[in-house]
Amino acid sequence: MEQDEGNNININNGGGGMFVKVMTDEQMEVLRKQIAIYATICEQLVDLHKSLTSHHDLAGVRLGNIYNDPLVASGGHKFSGRQRWTPTPVQLQILERLFEQGNGTPSKQKIKEITSELSQHGQISETNVYNWFQNRRARSKRKQQVSAPNNNNGESEVETEVESPKPQQNSVSTADDNMCFQTPNMCSVDQRAK
Amino acid sequence: MEQDEGNNININNGGGGMFVKVMTDEQMEVLRKQIAIYATICEQLVDLHKSLTSHHDLAGVRLGNIYNDPLVASGGHKFSGRQRWTPTPVQLQILERLFEQGNGTPSKQKIKEITSELSQHGQISETNVYNWFQNRRARSKRKQQVSAPNNNNGESEVETEVESPKPQQNSVSTADDNMCFQTPNMCSVDQRAK
DNA sequence: CTTTTATGAATGAAGG
DNA sequence: CCTTCATTCATAAAAG
After folding, report:
1. Which helix (H) or strand (E) segment is B8 a member of?
2. What are phi and psi of B179, to 5 degrees?
3. Which residues make beta-bridge pairs with A19?
4. Which residues in chain B are contacts of A177 at CB distance < 8 A?
5. In Å, how far are A10, A91, B83 from B78, measured between CA atoms?
């Protein structure tokens, strides 16, 4: 095993090799604090903007309305929007915070409050909030189930190296749950849908 | 237990053993999402600035892919094995066969069996199977809709999506949820700016 | 190498 | 709550 400068550890025991990302507790703490500061700045900026532009009624140009794509607009017809609600990043932060706060059971009254609170950051309805909590819980629950059943196959080499000439049959490492790296991409132009 | 036995990994190759703290895939995912969210907020703020200041020198500043796999890019290593599953030809064949067999409804139990069966032909998880059936069904259904000649007259046609009546005003944004890092109290911004 | 297509995965919403 | 559906996003694979 060797450790390079960039907190990557190469575990190489005989047959296969595997890279894992490592971090000390101290590094984690530093990171966490930095992110927290980042969050604070962002939120304050958003609020600042909101108060500064409150008289302009940003309702139409609301944050995150990136899907008001020029393509549709140039098309000359309808404001093809989308029907399904999508939480803004700020809303998500708040929701997640509430979720992990242990207020596991969103009561009817809570829903109202939360909705009211979140509406400061974008259009939202009580149903949206309700559904979000329902889905959030169900999803996290399912994830727990998935991450356990591995009794049979003792050990197999972990094919984490993408560059290996091996075809792309499977690229899953030790874990079985499937996570994918998806970045919120607000800039991408939707060119699919023929 | 998570996939890594509590993010401690015991590296024991031959000689001595050693424990290091590592981030689980899930933690990495969480971190990435969190950062992505803040990146999104910042970008929105930039856009807001643009519309507010209505300057002239714009449209060129595309922040584009700042968050295009920042984590993966780090260190230039391809450790981040999180790629999407791709069925092997054999697996695909079996899946197709099951799909045609009229077992239209893949129950939870069936999923397990199928997964177990397919795992002999390559890496796969229950989620993969589940998703596959979901997608398969949705896809074939849509195909039929398109090809289904319900065209009474050549009036309204095409346009996979329609401008359905807007049930409510929705702000639009794209982001994913999930984040576990608790924002500390230093983040005492009052969210209501009105 | 760039663009297009096919498809695995994520998720809001509805049904039971 | 839990399951299912529909829609969308991102990326591997294919085409140029």
Report:
1. strand B8-12
2. -170, 140
3. A10
4. 3, 25-26, 125, 127
5. 12, 33, 11
**The residue type at A37:** I
Q: Which nucleotides of D are covered by protein (CB under 7 A)?
A: 1-13
Backbone angles phi, psi at B84, to 5 degrees: -85, 150
* Protein CA A51 to sugar C1' D3 (Å): 43
By C-alpha distance, which of B70, B60, B61 is closest to B39? B70
State the pTM of this model: 0.62
| Burial group, residue A68, by CB count within 10 angstroms (0-12, 13-18, 19+) | middle
**Cα B172 versus chain centre, distance:** 18
Interface contact flag, A63 B74, Cβ < 8 Å: no
Tally Cβ neighbours within 10 Å of residue B99. Answer: 16
- Rounded CA gap, A20 and A24, in Å? 13
* 3-state helix/strand/coil string of B111-166: HHHHHHHHHHHCCCCHHHHHHHHHHHHHHHHHHHHHHCCCCCCCCCCCCCCCCCCC
Please state whether strand C lies within 7 Å of residue B178 at its CB atom: yes
Contact flag, residue A180 CB and nucleic strand C, below 7 A: yes
Round to whole Å and give the CA distance between B9 and A13.
14
Comparing A97 with B57, which gets the higher pLDDT? A97
Which tens digits make up the pLDDT trace of A148-158? 554 444 444 44
What's the CA gap between B193 and A47, in Å, rounded?
A: 6
Cross-chain residue pair B45–A46, CB shorter than 8 Å: yes
Reported as a single tens digit per residue, the pLDDT across A108-123 is 888 999 999 899 888 8
B107 touches chain A (CB under 8 A): no
